[in-house]
Amino acid sequence: MAKRIGLALGAGGARGIAHVHVLAALDDLGLKPHIIAGSSIGAVIGAGYAAGMSGEEIADYFVKTFSNRSRVFSKLWQLRMATFRDLFGGERANVRGLHTESLLKAFLPEGVPSDFSGLNLPLKVTATEFYGNRMRVIEDGSLLHALAASVAIPVIFKPVIIDGKVLIDGGINNPVPFDLVSGNQMITIAVDVLGLPRGVEGRLPTRLDAGFGASQLMMHSITQHKLREHPPSLYVQPRISGFRVLDFLKAREILKVSAAIRKSVRHDLEQLIERGEIGV
To answer: What is the pTM of this model?
Structure first.
């Protein structure tokens, strides 16, 4: 019996741009997930896909938006941010805490609605309750607020308050939320773009790299535990560890390095179709 597709898109900052190859593989075969769950950047890309954008369109948007430094400067200037370095400055970044909703308004594609009701596919957005360390799954209401909470990386972005709860990055509690789209009648596709810290053995990382790297290690441990307990049908892990969380200016390079994933995922999906596990 053909099963429904549940798609889980994980956290990982700019590395999450690689998600689009999995979306493109689904598009190649005329497949659509019945439900999407996303954490952090996975929630943002999931929102674009759930709104009706194709994988190729999302990839093109990232390249056009972040490969043009002047355009990025212009958007940041409109937000009255002091310098480009404040957001994408790597180890020299100013970590005062950026206003997440304003950034999303400036950089989200116009086709992404402000409310969940405007989506074409069901979407589950994760966030983490700062006081209590509980996962918050948001499925209705303001999509902008939900996405802002999900991408609120500690120190870099300001937390978001929804229903009186202080919410931060969804990846902190559930880095790859495939458990939210699993079930007996589901084929679950999980995309893990976390990567692991990279550097020269024996050389100390910068303070910012150490902070991001510690989060990577923690989220990797959470994901490995979940994989042992309830593995998804397809587990996709692009090789993008060489990129940093805020490397959005390297969108084109990230897409190039991870491009092989599209063919690999398409092959795996074709096998599921041949076995009758997924209907076209």
So the answer is: 0.90
